[in-house]
Write a structure and sequence with these properties.
Blueprint lengths: L3 E4 L7 E3 L4 E4 L4 E4 L8 E4 L6 H14 L7 E2 L2 E2 L1 E4 L5 E4 L6 E3 L13 H16 L3 E2 L20 H11 L5 E2 L4
Parallel strand pairs: 11-12
Antiparallel strand pairs: 1-2, 1-5, 3-4, 6-7, 8-9, 9-10
This protein binds zinc ion.
The site of zinc ion has 8 residues, from loops.
């Protein structure tokens, strides 16, 4: 994995690598600039800590992104969840490319999905930090709106396919369906 960088502007926090950054032509040299705010200073971002639970959460995100309305997918890029050296959980949004601190209680700046998916990301965080599994019924839930399939708008067929796929994951509690 090439060295990850994060835009130094607090309001931006774009995350990528020097190859995904933009370039400003300064005549004698090309300077790397942030694609979102054009700022030219970055922090080095350590690679995520290896974590089986984070892999489970990413498998869940990946499954959700490959069905129905493809939440968490932006033009083939899928959002990811990661753990840092202190055990804190971060969400990297595929649309905004912003790395979001999931333990933050206030508004998640740069989170491109709504409250329902934020709650789900918080459940993934709790699984990673505490081992609490996510009830299968919370994935594309149908019980509040049975005639329309599910509150995610995935449609009955896609929602059923998705639940069938994720039921096998350790992060999911299949008994609470
Ligand atoms: Zn920036």
């Amino acid at each position: 994995m090439s060295q990850r960088i994060e835009c130094s502007k607090r309001q931006c926090r774009w995350t990528g690598t020097f190859s995904t950054a933009h370039r400003r032509d300064d005549g004698f040299m090309k300077t790397a600039i942030c694609p979102r705010c054009n700022c030219d200073s970055f922090y080095d971002l350590p690679n995520p800590v290896k974590s089986e639970r984070a892999e489970q959460a990413n498998a869940l995100i990946k499954a959700i992104s490959s069905h129905g309305r493809k939440f968490f997918d932006y033009k083939g890029e899928v959002s990811t969840i990661e753990v840092d050296a202190k055990g804190k959980v971060w969400f990297v949004d595929s649309y905004t490319k912003r790395r979001i601190y999931t333990h933050y209680q206030g508004r998640w700046s740069g989170f491109s999905n709504g409250g329902t998916l934020r709650d789900l990301v918080c459940c993934m965080r709790n699984y990673i930090t505490k081992g609490h599994k996510i009830p299968l019924a919370w994935i594309a839930p149908t019980r509040f709106n049975p005639e329309n399939g599910d509150i995610w708008g995935y449609g009955q067929e896609a929602a059923a396919d998705l639940r069938k796929e994720v039921a096998l994951l350790d992060i999911i509690d299949e008994s609470k369906a």
